[in-house]
Write a structure and sequence with these properties.
The protein is mainly beta. The chain contains three helices and 15 strands. A five-stranded mixed beta barrel has the order 1-2-3-5-4. A four-stranded mixed β-sheet has the order 8-15-14-11, with no helix packed on it.
Amino acid sequence: MKRAFLAAVFMLLPAFAIFAQEPLEPVKIKRETLEDRLDAAEAAVVGVVQSVKPVEDEKLKHARPVLEKMVAEVRVETVVKGVVGGGTIYVEFEKSRLREMPPRTVLEPGERAMLFLKRQPGSGAYGFIDAYSGKMPADDRSVGKAEETAERAGWKVALSASLRLSKSEFQRGEPIPFEVIIRNGSASPVIIEAAVVPPRDILVVDGGGKKIKPSRPYADARQRARDDFSTLPPKHFMGFSGDLLEYFPITEPGTYAVTAVITPSSGARIGLPAWTGSVTSNTAAFIVR
């Protein structure tokens, strides 16, 4: 029996020798170039890491897994691609307790970097495009190249607004109809609050440049719901119309000017990556006689 065991061992030795000579295949990083990372990302931002902490997981409370789930709070400085709701985002990633080659992408407090992100399913947080190529140094050259690439590819959100009046002269007390159009000129869809909200988004001044105060102060403490937002596809537009006299006491004859300064509500509280920048329309002058 001992001889049979030794014979089996000797028969297996060549196989082990062949296996030992096979080089270990390195982990392949599919997205090595800036262009590849931008193409794979739903959103790309330049930001500064404010804090990093472990994510509580009841299932792993008494275990010590090799990969520890972390979440980083990141203050966004610049949006290179896509739509990012609010000035602060949360990025989830996995940190290995072992030394890996190549190392996983991790974030550290105080770090400034360009991040390539995708939405985490069922969460308001983001994750990296993959475990190994989710960030790059945020030096001026890299950021400039990234912004040029995103602009050229149409990945950078390009919203514009236009305002028009039904005519340029009105009689005192006559309705003053206006229309605001918001256009998405980029190649990416944009989630945005589905209405222009007067008087929050409308500015009226008289001939001397003095701002006309609204008839009643704008106060809308209502919590926004998903139904208050819509997705504006690439190269599409949405519009809003109304009567300036419903919102502003334009009672005196004279020259006036109206501009739309649109600042939509954030969808962060309900987990929507809604656009939260500001876009200003043209200015339309009119006369009240």
